[in-house]
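Tutorial, part two.
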Amino acid sequence: MPAVFTIDARSGVPIYLQLIDQVKRSVAIGVLEPGEQLPTVKQLALDLTINPNTVARAYRDLERDEVIETASGRGSFVRGNGTAMTARKALSDVAVDSLTHAIREAKSIGLNRSEVLALVQTAVDRWFPKEEQ
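Running the prediction step on this input gives:
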């Protein structure tokens, strides 16, 4: 099943970062398999009605992060070597991005460090019961 990418121009998150996050998430959960070809820059830009330079930037960053590889004239593909490690790192990157966004929001509404840490601990305890440690 091919991955479906979407963007939310009103989210406040730059479009290229949204694309990076979606590709990493798709690799991490197995929606995008090793060796699978991504849409071309031009095609994805047309599908999402965004500037091709935005897609190209996301692809460059994904290549730098070793999530994808690009072959001139052939396209961009999910990296095939070290897939388990790449997927785990991609998953970690997605989590860090989400946590960073949440912490930035908490700070912007006036919560201090100890309040944020308490909220994070409460959320962790809720989703990871003590028995799972």
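The two ends are 34 Å apart (CA to CA). In part three we will examine how such features are distributed along the chain.
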